Amino acid sequence: MTSLRGPIALIAETEADDSHEQLFDDGVALTKQYEATRTDLDGLATAICKLRRVVELTPKDHPDTAPRLSWLGASLFLHFETTGDLQHIAEAISAQETALELTSEGDPDRAVRLANLGASLWSRSERTGDLHDLAEAIEARQRALELTPEGHPDMASRLSGLGASLRSRFEHTGDLQDLAEAISADQRALEHTPEGHPDMAWQLTGLGMSLWSRFERTGDLQDLAEAISMNQRALEITPEGHPDMARRLANLGLFLWSRFEHTEDLQDLAEGISAQQRALVLIPEGHPDMALRLANLGNSLRSRFDLTEDLEDLAEAISAQKRALVLIPEGHPDMALQLASLGTSILSRFGHTEDLDDLAEAISMQHRALEITPEGHPDMALRHCNLAVSFEARFGHTGENQDFTEALSHCRTAATSPFGPPHIRLQAAKHWAGLLEEFNPGSSEILTAFDTAIRLSTLTTTLDQVLENRYSQLVDTSGLALQAASAAFALQRVDKALEWLEQGRCLVWRQLTSLRTPLDDLSRHDSHLAESVVKLSKKLEGAGSVRNAARSAMLMSEKVSLEDQARDHLRNAREWDELVTKVRATPGFERFLEPSPWHTLLPYLPEAGHAIIVNVDTRRCDAIVLSTGRSTPLHIPLPSFSLAKCNQYRQDLTNQLQAHDYRERGGTVATVLEEADKERGIRKVILRKNRETSVQDILQGLWTDLVKPVLQALEIEKTAPPSTEVAPRIWWCPTGPLSFLPIHAAGIYANEGAECLLDYAVPSYTPTIAALTDRVRNARPIEKATSGLFMTCQPNAPGASHIPGTTKEVQFIENLVTKEGLRSERLEGSTITPAICLDSMERFNSIHLACHACQDIANPLDSRFLFHNGSLDLLAILQRNLKNADLAFLSACQTGTGAEELPDEAVHLAAGMLAAGYRRVVATIWAIRDEHAPHVATDFYQYLLYHRDPADGSGFDGMHSARALHHATQQLRIRLGDNSDQSLLSWIPYVHFGY
């Protein structure tokens, strides 16, 4: 650190010759010179001494006292920024506070003095972690902005300063509202900075840091990509030798490392390490940033070791992190982070060397990190997670029960902590449950662990995110509910298994449903409160359905507008939580919008049927049956079924679909153009036939191991002709990969002993049991004004094969409906647009879409129906609240096929129609033949209309749609005339969802 004694002596010798003004002018000039170059620290020390002296010589009531104090504060602030000397920043703050006290309201210099004080308070809080300083810094910077007129040259820097302070508070508290405000301020700062301005790089850097911080919390890779882009632009306009070059290189290295952690792109990691190493070369010895730069480089090198197992990388990582630990001062807020990082690196070395001394050192480092992490800090849960991993590693090596107990304790503490990112706490809860399952499988604590995990899984997909982001977050929780249910079955807790399967699946659909919950009871009790819920739910639903736009090509003004919307959405989400809490405080509404306990489902089960949820997990498979008149769930273990069989059946079925040209698969194979009109897929391809496992084999396996045991347990008998009994309804609720298999077609199709589920019952599907019971609970008569059928056919959608059967199909249907005197409308080809179709969906309670459809696996909400004039996507449908919707017949391909990465979220067009308000949906789980579709539709509507009771005045409704589809597929089976794989694949894709 530079001594100030020399400059003081120099001033004392020359003071007699210097006027007060000269001392001040010299001090200001030296301060400005250092600010521009950051090279002459001795010159800055001289400036401080001159400014101190001139302040001493200036009477407090003199008009120049405030500006002289302000410049003294500025010079001391710059010295602290370089040296980290806390005495200097304390003196700077004192001088700036006094200057502010001497500055009257209305003085044009008040804004700059508030801004400078805010900068100093923020800088000290960065060094000490003092949240009081940080709060005062934010307040000062906000007041400075309020006094800054639009167009003022300092507007951008003051916005950027506020953004940095708000970002810092987010890092301490995890409050996303602060981060949203920070990003908004940073964007506005950039918007106010003209091209070529010397502060442009600084503004780009600030926005990049805020976007990276949000990525760290939400995992949104678009934020990270933009952060990297901002930082790269900042570097491009930073001249060689600039004092901020090192910081910007280090930031780029950090951002690239973060992206590597998500994508495992080695090029990102290599470029990140290179940038961090270059930054270290440029940082002068003794600079306060040195420790952080070394620690971040260590993290990057450890990541490369984890991938390549190059011990040189790990040795260099540990060396860098140990150097960082030596350099960081006691009490620094980053100390805990550095200790934790070093502990993780040493744990990595133990994994390679199995040296217990390494493990002991790692645990010691992690303990120290935990001890100095403030209570309530968002990193507290992560500290406990790190220790849990280390103690588990030692338990695995030594078998000491104390280590197992410690691992369990740290997992439990992290999972149940009210602080920290939900995904970290969820990780801890899963680890907690996993430890118990492996080493103490009979413990009832497993139930507590999974209860915690299921609750936390709902917090990773909250209403403050748009729908697309919620789905991406759910990939990490896929299968959790199934694993939890399996554990509950093992502990004979069928009730828990049922609750977890309901609470932990279809999370996004459940959120959407909660925003559309009927509020009649609440309105009668408190109409004002109910009205507030309705208004806010509409805002949240509209904002949540907004599609993520590609921000890279946007103007900054567009990005600012987008962030303003996001900030409003976040604020509304918080208000929603507060409003729900208020409703739950109302007597009689204590469980408002909470997942229903299993016993509340029973009164609203459909009559004369069974709802069956099938859990598929690595350890076991089970079915739970809920039936009207049965007071408890019926548990049916399925010992002959397994996850391995399920996955194999799914792969075999995929092979058969490809072999029979029922599903497109990427590649360079030739398109069969001359056969294109036979299928409502996008394209047909020639693929190698795979006959090793036939479709019959798959269906027989499902029958023998799954469906037949359930039917036997329920004592359901065959009702096929000539029996006159009405077949019971069965609603299947499959989980995991079973969601992609045709349970409804399970059976033995060989000539001898042929039987199948259709001989016993009328099958339907439901995403969850609650999705079914909600439709019974909220049953409503068909409104006469909307009763009717809207139809469209799209035989020539651009980019898709010609499907002439769609025209014939809707003509047949229209003739049937018209003959019955029911309201209908038919629009074809170019006469309809997606917008017109959406309007028609509001005017008619039932719709029939005969067209191509496309399931978007990468972005499920972009799954769509293809029209001649554009496409109708799932997101657009969800944005309409179709309160009169009843029946949707989706005569297109793969409208009931979900996303492979999210099998338990039912992300497909059929479920989307249910979520949009339709009570029942006919869909398909793979491509359908164009020549069969008109006959299936005709048989379906003939049955539906024949069994309609005109006397009840119900008009057109889909009450008998499941039985109508059962009848129509049976008729198609008769027409096909055999049970060949080709014939089976022709009728099986038709499925029924809903009530």
From TrEMBL:
PANTHER family from the UniProt entry: FUNGAL LIPASE-LIKE DOMAIN-CONTAINING PROTEIN, KINESIN LIGHT CHAIN
InterPro entries, alphabetized: CHAT_dom, TPR-like_helical_dom_sf
Name of the protein described by the UniProt record: CHAT domain-containing protein
Top-rank taxon, per record: Eukaryota
Protein species of origin: Ephemerocybe angulata
Domain CHAT: 697-994
